[in-house]
Amino acid sequence: MPRLSLNLNSSVVGKDLQVSGFVSPETHPGTPINATLSSSDPTKILLSTGAFVAGNSSVTVTLGQGSSQFFVQSLTDRGTATVTVSAPGFTSGSVNVTLGPTGFTLQNHATLSTTSLSPDTTLQIVPTVLDPSTLGVRTTQPLRAGLSGVQVNVTSSDTRVGNITTSPVVFNGGDQYKATGFHPVGAGTAVITVDVPAGFSTPAGQRQVLATVASPGLTMYSGPVGFNLQTQATINLTAPAPAGLRLTITSTDPSKLLVSPSSLATGSGSISLNVFTGATTVSFWVQALGSSGTVQVTASAPGFNNGSVDVLLYPSGFGFLFFGGSTMSLSRGTTQFLYVGTVLLDPQTLTPIGTAPQLRPGLAPFTVNVTSSDPTVAAITGSPLAFSGGDSQKNIWVSGVSPGITTISISTPAGFSAPASFQQITATVR
Fold it and tell me: Taking residues 362-376, what's their average pLDDT?
């Protein structure tokens, strides 16, 4: 006769847990038949046809064109039992079940690191089959159907560091896990512990996790800024901003460097910014009054460690922008325009290292002269150029008058530096 076979997803079942299995006929019957599954010892294991159905000493399943599922539910933490299946016209089958102790453990958390302003960290508590000799963790299985109201307390050793959002967590039959959370409160460390409910065993591991809570920090960045120019700087928050967070940004030397909330506002020695809830990046502007040295800018906010950045002050000047050379040619009677604008200069060589940064707001208006060494060869229109805060570039026009060669030059306004290049163009008129 064809045989009936039994297969379990695990041959070891923890006390008050359950594991699924399948009955499979060696040959499929022509019409569905009933097969009976029996426990050799109902004081040790019960059988069920569903994950949420309390077990009995025996159950009946229907065999058709495929396998039929059943569940083994353990009532004890030691020994063995046998599950037998029989059906008319088939040779019976059986499988042995080993029973073991059960505990509750934390899943996927060897360590836990967070900040005092970070969102809650989810903790998953799982029923776990334990090694009978060492009580080490073997595998996880759901609580057996028919059992309900198993309360598992989860605790924090120091609620000044963090507390548990839901405790106890309550398991009912069929539950594979329950979730709670660790809510950070303040900097420090705390031990999170899963307690042992009555009737269960104490796992040798994975029952505790050390939670480390740090104060979030402020990380600042700014590139160099040229004399009377401005550049954008950023602050990165290592935890999302809580509602109502206010950030204070301060220049340690307002005689050389100002800070501003926007590119349109005149800077000051200190500003306060409202930070959007959940934001992790904040921008502001630094505006240079000096052309050398460094100035430290600091940032502070309640609940965050202070941040700082050293801002380099560089010289700046005016040059021909986007031209790409030092010579030009044009025909008599034609006109060509040139861009004249700000350039950031290397403090050692005065070589331009950045073009067209904005002049700082609040800067008094001034002019930049552009001249032709021989106006009878090429004439300049649009000079002098008027610049003020927020400007970065202007246009002038060069018109060919008569054949010859002339030098187009930019004058250097007071306080600015003459660039080592980009300040003169040799123009040939044909």
Answer: 97
pLDDT at residue 336, rounded to an integer: 95
Q: Do residues 70 and 26 lie in contact, with contact meaning Cβ atoms separated by under 8 Å?
A: no
pLDDT in tens, 96-132: 999 999 999 999 878 899 999 989 999 999 999 999 9
Q: Virtual CA dihedral for 221, 226, 228, 229, nearest 10 degrees? A: -60
Q: What is the band of 323 on the pLDDT scale with cuts at 50, 70, 90?
A: confident
The pLDDT of residue 49 is 96
What average pLDDT does range 162-168 have in this prediction?
Answer: 98
The model's pTM is 0.72
CB-CB contact of 142 with 125 (8 Å): no
Q: Is the peptide bond before 42 cis (omega within 30 degrees of 0)?
A: no
Total count of residues recorded for the chain? 430
Compute the mean pLDDT over every residue in the chain, rounded to the nearest whole number: 96
Residue with the two structure tokens 């996880």: 140
**Strand partners for 379:** 399
Among residues 194, 179, 208, which one has the least CA distance to residue 120?
179
pLDDT at 86 over 80: yes
How many Å apart are CA 385 and CA 151, to the nearest integer? 80
Distance of alpha carbon 154 from alpha carbon 301, whole angstroms: 33
Distance of CA 417 to the CA centre of its chain: 44
**How far, CA to CA in Å, does 295 sit from each of 187, 213, 254, 311?**
31, 32, 9, 5
List, as one string, the DSSP characters of 104-148: EEEES-SEEEEETTSPPEEEEEEEEEE-TTT--EEEE-PBPTT--
Q: What confidence tier does 29 reach under pLDDT thresholds 50, 70, 90?
A: confident
Contact (CB, 8 A) for 15 and 147: no
Question: Distance (Å, rounded) from C-alpha 53 to C-alpha 205?
Answer: 31
Instruction: Report residue 345 CA to chain centroid gap.
Output: 37
Q: Which domains does the chain have, with CATH numbers?
A: 4-100 (2.60.40.10), 102-214 (2.60.40.3450), 218-314 (2.60.40.10), 316-429 (2.60.40.1080)
